[in-house]
Structure prediction request, 305 residues.
Amino acid sequence: MIKDIQERILRLKKEKDVCILAHCYQTHDILEVADFVGDSFGLAQKAQQTANKTVMMCGVRFMAETVKILCPEKTVLLPEPDAGCPMAEQLDKEMLSQLKEKYPDYAVVAYINTTAELKTLCDVCVTSSSAPKIIKRMDEDKILFIPDRNLGGYIAKQCPDKEIVTVHGCCPTHAKMTKHDVETAKSAHPDALLLVHPECETGVVALADFVGSTTEIMDFAKQSDRTEFIIGTENSIVQHLGIDCPDKKFYPLSKDFVCHNMQLTKLASVLHCLEGAGGEEITMDEKTRLSAKACIDKMLELGNE
Ligand code: 13P
Ligand code: SF4
Prediction:
């Protein structure tokens, strides 16, 4: 059944000249039909490079918006219109304008998990994998970082020469994890290394053996000569690593580590979207696109240096 749906997807994407991009949090059956799988930074780079006329983003809305911002001439599809990122919607333009008034001489750095609208008011965009590198390379020393207080705190530790102000946003999925979850997982698996995403609370990050983006976590586990790992990010990563590294053991930090928005997109959603029976085409007015693009261009410029 799954193989049958995958074959129909592969046939249709070729016929319709569609490039399928999938974030690592998608299920394995979706990764198998994707042209590129990656973290937010890798997806933004691929969006720029792909030659196909249409790009389908299997992930959440801000990721599809990023593709549209970078590729206005392409048709950009989000297979599940309800797949949003709650963190990306925590601040609106009015709230950010007030913050900018409060911190007038600070450069505004936005995590890529923000809406296109919010990006129009920001100076530089970053992803979890590119953030410390980009912020170190910025000329400005005073940074207002939005919206994830946890990633902001992690960056502040990596960039001690910068003065970083954070706001009270967070990822509801990562912020749910506690030191108690770490203690429970470590006592059940005392030989395992703990790998966490920097969206986790500072107290959880402090106990980690490795901190990185989704692809950085997967690369670390694959390349390590250790054989057991507790995965401190969305549980799809436990699934992918288990399939990719059958000789190693991967344990979820918690069975509740699930981003329900990411999991809204199913293999069937991809098929229906290709058939024209579901999904949404992302549209954006040119003024919003151009002013949101400036901070993503800056990220790609500083990140690719
Ligand atoms: P990555 O940049 O690590 O892919 O993170 C995206 C995300 O939404 C994590 O929750
Ligand atoms: Fe957004 Fe958190 Fe889901 Fe990532 S895991 S998409 S930050 S809600």
